[in-house]
Amino acid sequence: MKNILNIILSFVMLSFVACKDDFIDLTPPASITDDVYYTEAEHFLTGSNRFYTNLIGWTDQGVYSDHGSDLVGYTEAGGMQDYSRGDTQAPESDVDYDDAYQAIRDMNLLLARAQNYEGNEIGQYVAATYFHRAYQYWFLVQKFGGVTLVLQPLDVGSEELNAPRNSRYEVVAQILNDLDAAIAGLPNEADIASGDKGKISKEAAMALKAEVLLHEATWMKYVGTSTDGDGSSTGAGSKGFSESNITPYLQEVVTLTKSIMDGGTFELWDYNNQLDNLSSNFLFNLEDGGSNPAGLDKATNKEFIFYGKYDFIFRQAGTLVSHVYEGRLKPSRKMMDMFLCTDGLPIDQSQLFKGYAETQDEYQERDYRMRAYFTYHQTLGEIPQTGDVLLDGTNNFGYFNSKFMSWNWGAANAYRATKTESYDMPFIRLAEVYLWYAEALYELNGSLTDAEMDESINLVKARAGLPSISNAFLAANNLDLLTEIRRERTIELYAESSTRFTDLRRWGIAEEELGQTIYGAVIEGTAYENNIDLYDPSKYGFPEETTTTGVGQRRCVVVQPSSTRNFARHHYLFPLPTSQTSLNSSLLQNPGY
């Protein structure tokens, strides 16, 4: 814990350095020498520690958690809810853009000073900085596509201040180079002391590289250059694009993920026997032994590979976590119907599916994650019975969310009050690495062997109480393997690290999926139908519509109709802030804005 405190104190101590850095950048270089900081190894340690504060945090949960996606039944105006409807205009400023370049500037300063440092004791700090710079550029690429590469500290005459955007392919090439430098210099997770857990490991850099490679390989395959613009009138252009990169990118994903999987350092956090099959809930609100009924603490978690570190004493969330996750992550009809039955079959094929007549029916014989994510947090795991869920408007569309909510939040015996939650924030965990491995193999070969399924997707399914799949099982039930791999990603990574928006875009299907009506509870043929005590249609802004469910066509509550959802291909990228395009005429806006 002392080491955690030292890291937090470093952040505070370095705040004066940030001001000094601003002064350096804004003052003519002749008036200040380059050796005002980063002259001792301790400076590089402190500087690299500071970059952890530039990672996404709980205050960024709206972006992190896919608010407003097609899987979520909360669509009020604002933020990512507007984005999912295609209601995005070029803003005057964008904090994500500004903050990323602010962080990159500080990272470039450390890296430049490191080139002149005499001594070899700063290698790990430099490697961590390369990782953080790659992370910031990766964040920018996912949001804006190609951006201007800045790799050195700038002064008032630097050419980069008026430079055009680099293409996404040029930026990605730099990201991969930075990650290679990080991998070469970072320690293995097993060699990081317990008090320093949360610092970047070699495996974290390998995992981030695998994410970048898979994302870009599938983006090139399914999206291509359709969002790039021509680079002369709009967008960043397509310089460096080559479909020949797809296969080697995917091959390296397989190599990197297999290395992590076989390394033995990480393991799925599976305490279902001690937690009533609710591992997939308590993993995400894990703090000390009081955070769950089994008395498990963070030391038991070997699943998180890259994550934001929090602590109740030194770094609480400081924002409404449980409160917001309760209200804004309630699932849509689409999400609820994705969960398989315990025979491993989709609900429209399984004889185990009980339908929707009574509220409790659809929860029977289903994937463990359905109970873990979507039962009421104060009675977690208790399947709601008819009469427990009233459809009376006010953001009630039939379901609860409890993922990322503190145990018993809001009750007299609550573990944490909102804003004090201190669970770690996962960016990459082992379950996702298994799914990357499976997806990359499929994209390479169009198939997986049974052995490859057993060492990847079937491990994730096992924790969810689902049987293994095999080629014979898929053939016998007319199931498509790619569909099942994508289903697992959707369910396992629900509300994590903006996975849904990212996946829909890189698979080239965001227009289709985000353009659909979002539904809530099934009404037709259920206890809600014609029962004013359970369901008041007048409290909803849209009339019921008929859609496909697990038992065929049924009328459902409409959360938001397709007529109001206009997501288009150009929305795959966000617009650049107009303050930047006005300052630099070479900085061309993304197409469509």
Summarize the model shown:
39% of the residues lie in helices and 5% in strands. The protein has 593 residues and is mainly alpha-helical.
Mean pLDDT: 94
Radius of gyration of CA atoms, rounded to a whole number: 24 Å
The tally of helices reads 22
Low-confidence stretches: 1-34
Write a structural description:
The chain has helices spanning 2-13, 15-26, 41-50, 61-64, 79-84, 95-115, 123-144, 168-185, 202-222, 246-262, 279-282, 322-328, 333-338, 368-374, 430-445, 450-454, 457-463, 471-476, 481-492, 499-506, 510-514, 578-583, and strands at residues 304-308, 425-429, 518-522, 545-549, 552-560. It has 593 residues and is mainly alpha-helical. Among the domains are: 2-62 and 95-186, Serine Threonine Protein Phosphatase 5, Tetratricopeptide repeat, CATH 1.25.40; 342-370 and 391-398 and 517-564, no CATH class. It has a three-stranded antiparallel sheet. A two-stranded antiparallel ribbon has the order 1-2.
Descriptors:
593 residues, 5 strands, three-stranded antiparallel sheet, Serine Threonine Protein Phosphatase 5, Tetratricopeptide repeat, disordered N terminus, mainly alpha, two-stranded antiparallel sheet, 22 helices, single chain, 5% strand
Give the topology, please.
Blueprint: H1 2-13, H2 15-26, H3 41-50, H4 61-64, H5 79-84, H6 95-115, H7 123-144, H8 168-185, H9 202-222, H10 246-262, H11 279-282, E1 304-308, H12 322-328, H13 333-338, H14 368-374, E2 425-429, H15 430-445, H16 450-454, H17 457-463, H18 471-476, H19 481-492, H20 499-506, H21 510-514, E3 518-522, E4 545-549, E5 552-560, H22 578-583
Antiparallel strand pairs: 1-2, 3-5, 4-5
Helix pairs in contact: 1-3, 3-7, 6-7, 7-8, 8-9, 9-10, 9-15, 9-20, 10-15, 15-19
